[in-house]
Specification:
Elements (H helix, E strand, L loop, with lengths): L1 H17 L5 H54 L9 E3 L3 E9 L5 E12 L6 E9 L3 H4 L2 E20 L2 E5 L11 E8 L2 E8 L11
Antiparallel strand pairs: 1-2, 2-3, 3-4, 4-5, 5-6, 5-7, 7-8
Length: 209
């Protein structure tokens, strides 16, 4: 009878000990599982943030490209094809006069120059734009700005009609008159881009080359 009582007391004590908390091994396993779950969740959030950053970077690049192409196109389309206005260029530089409207809705003549320069930050290049008001040239001076960066290839060519055939030239002299069209090919963040502008507007008695 005494032995039975001792056995029952031992069982009760063991139950109390079992229900008093986790063992060290169980605690270590729980902490390990929680850390693994947190690592997985943190990695998922990190991937999401990287995807968002890449998406925003891509949108910014496309926005900059569209603005730059539209600016180049509008300036060339508004080029002054006047016999006294210079128009000359090479494969990496182009200068001409452009007629634009100022804030007072008056037409002004601007001296425009596009050129390719090295980027000091990396091995790529950037397209620079210089704008100068011809009338107030001495007062305003050149307005030098970066039009587009991240350029790895760039080429300007000029269309001339020779015996009813189209000939693209890599250089245009001022005394040659004006080309029929200007083509600008460049690579922007490893993506090829083409800008083609017809020089349609002519002054009276002046013909394109």
């Amino acid at each position: 009878m005494e032995s039975i009582c001792i056995f029952n007391i031992t069982r009760l004590l063991s139950r109390e000990n079992d229900s008093s908390g986790f063992t060290l091994m169980e605690l270590l396993i729980s902490i390990t599982v929680v850390m693994i779950v947190m690592a997985v969740v943190a990695g998922t959030f990190r991937l999401c943030f990287k995807a968002v950053e890449k998406g925003e970077e891509f949108i910014d690049e496309q926005r900059s490209l569209i603005m730059a192409v539209n600016y180049i196109y509008s300036q060339l389309e508004a080029a002054s094809l006047d016999e006294h206005a210079p128009f000359y260029g090479t494969t990496d530089k182009l200068r001409f006069f452009s007629k634009q409207m100022d804030p007072m809705e008056e037409e002004v003549l601007q001296d425009i120059e596009f050129r390719l320069v090295d980027s000091p930050d990396d091995s790529s290049k950037k397209i620079m734009i210089s704008v100068q008001n011809v009338v107030f040239a001495s007062e305003t001076g050149l307005n030098d700005q970066v039009l587009l960066s991240g350029i790895t290839a760039f080429e300007i060519s000029y269309l001339r009609i020779v015996k009813q055939k189209q000939v693209w030239e890599d250089k245009w002299e001022e005394e040659s008159g004006f080309p029929r069209a200007v083509r600008i090919l460049f690579t922007y963040h490893h993506k090829p881009v083409a800008v083609f502008v017809r020089m349609m507007r002519q002054t009276k008695g002046l013909k394109n080359a």
